[in-house]
What we know:
alpha/beta
Amino acid sequence: xxxxxxxxxxxxxxxxxxxxxxxxxxxxxxxxxxxxxxxxxxxxxxxxxxxxxxxxxxxxxxxxxxxxxxxxxxxxxxxxxxxxxxxxxxxxxxxxxxxxxxxxxxxxxxxxxxxxxxxxxxxxxxxxxxxxxxxxxxxxxxxxxxxxxxxxxxxxxxxxxxxxxxxxxxxxxxxxxxxxxxxxxxxxxxxxxxxxxxxxxxxxxxxxxxxxxxxxxxxxxxxxxxxxxxxxxxxxxxxxxxxxxxxxxxxxxxxxxxxxxxxxxxxxxxxxxxxxxxxxxxxxxxxxxxxxxxxxxxxxxxxxxxxxxxxxxxxxxxxxxxxxxxxxxxxxxxxxxxxxxxxxxxxxxxxxxxxxxxxx
Length: 360
C-alpha cells in the first residue's frame, strides 16, 4: 500500500485543515496516510517523528496552499525536486486577498501570494474546490483537479441533534473575515427587532464569538442592530475548535449565509450551505457564487438577490411557517448528502493520487 504524507497537524488544525486535509485523507483507505505539521526541518534521510520512515518511503506528499509555513518555500521546493517526490497542493480560496481582508497586510508583508504562485508552478498537480478557482490556478499549472468540500457525517459534530427553545433562533456561524458579508444584515435586523408580529418569538445567535476580538465588537453592532436587540433577542455563541464548531447549528432553527459579491468571494467554497444542510437547518443565503449553483429557491434554500431587505422578509416568512422550515431543511439535507458526502468525493481523490503515483 502506497504511503502518503499529508502536511497538516490533526491536533492543532484550522477549519481549512479539517475540511481539506485531515478529514478527506483520514477517509482515504486505499493508502497508508501519515500526517506531519511541517517538513522544513526534516533532512533528506532523517527519520520522521513517531515512525521509522524517511522521505524515500512516501509516494506522494500533500500540502495546503504552500509547501512551507515558515517562509522557506525555496528551500522546501529544492528538497522536493532533489528527492524526486511528486506533490499536490490544495487551494480552498484565492491567494490574492482584497484590501479589506484582515490578513491583507500580513500576506503583502510576507509576499505570500508570490510564494504560493511559485509552489503552484512547481507542483505535480493542484486540487481545489470549484471551477472559478480552478480557472485562476490554470494560469500557473494545467494539472488541476476539482475536489469539492464534503462532509463526513460520522464525525460527532455533524449529527442532526437539536437543542429545543421557546424562540425561533436565527443563526450565523463564522470567523473574523466576514465583515463585508455581514454589513447588509444591519437593516434587516432593524426591521426584525421592530416587527411586532415576531419580535417576541425570535432570537439571533452569532457563533464564533471571541471576546478579545475588535472585529467581533463590530459584528455585534450588526447582529444587535445598533444595540436595539434585547438580551432575549440576541446572544453570542463562543468560538469552538475545528472538531466541534458545527455544534452551534444545533441551536439554530434558521441559518443565514450572507456573502458579498466580489471576485475574491467567488473563489470561496459553498461550505456554509453544506454545514447547515447536514445539520438539518434551513438556509437563507445570498444568491451569489459559489452558493448560487446549488441554491434552488424555495426548494432547498431561500435565495437572496436583494440583501438589504430580503433577509428580513425571508426570515419573517420562515419564522411564521414551521412547515416551510422543515421542508427546506429536509430538501437541503438530501441534496447535500447525495452530492457532498465525503463518500462521493473520496473515490475521485483516490483515483487522482493513483494516477500521479503511477506516472499517468
